[in-house]
Specification:
- By secondary structure, the protein is mostly helical.
- It has a single domain (about 5-85, about 125-145), classed as Winged helix-like DNA-binding domain superfamily/Winged helix DNA-binding domain (Arc Repressor Mutant, subunit A, Orthogonal Bundle), CATH 1.10.10.
- It is built from seven helices and two strands, in the order αααββαααα.
- The chain has a two-stranded antiparallel ribbon with strand order 1-2.
- The radius of gyration is 18 Å and the shape is elongated.
- It starts with a helix and ends with a helix.
Length: about 140
């Protein structure tokens, strides 16, 4: 299984914000510069994260966005499920599969999906940067300079 780039970008945005001094606003441009991403894609991700109330956005001269919740309350299973969409991993009906009446694949993969999200539920955005926060911040600053 591979996460969509959209989800990857969302996690990068959250990690970047997690490494910033508290309540420091950032911009789409900074995210794009640090990670070499398209502004169009990052704008969409930032909009989605704001709709999920994970970040606060502000317009204007001193605008940008900042984390809206404590790092320890943003669980990875929630973020990934929301950004990926909670679709079936195996679609037996489009196109319809001739093996469907006897196949166990969908059930086995669905159980794996449950375990995947159960594993991620034990982690938060804080876990992505713990013990490396200062090092990551320095790397991010260096990319912008």
């Amino acid at each position: 299984m591979q996460l969509k780039k959209y989800t990857d970008y969302g996690l990068r945005v959250l990690m970047y914000l997690a490494c910033q001094p508290e309540q420091t606003m950032t911009s789409v441009r900074k995210i794009c510069d640090v990670f070499s991403l398209s502004a169009n894609h990052v704008n969409k991700v930032v909009h989605h994260l704001a709709k999920l109330e994970l970040i606060d956005t502000r317009r204007g001269k001193n605008g940008g966005f900042v984390l809206a919740k404590p790092l320890t309350s943003i669980r990875l299973d929630y973020v990934i499920r929301q950004l990926e969409g909670d679709e079936e991993w195996i679609d037996c009906h489009s196109p319809s599969c001739v093996a469907l009446p006897a196949c166990q694949l969908n059930g086995i993969v669905a159980q794996g999906k449950v375990l995947f999200y159960q594993h991620l539920s034990r982690y938060t955005v804080a876990d992505l940067v713990t013990d490396k926060r200062a090092e990551l911040h320095a790397i991010f600053v260096q990319q912008i300079a």
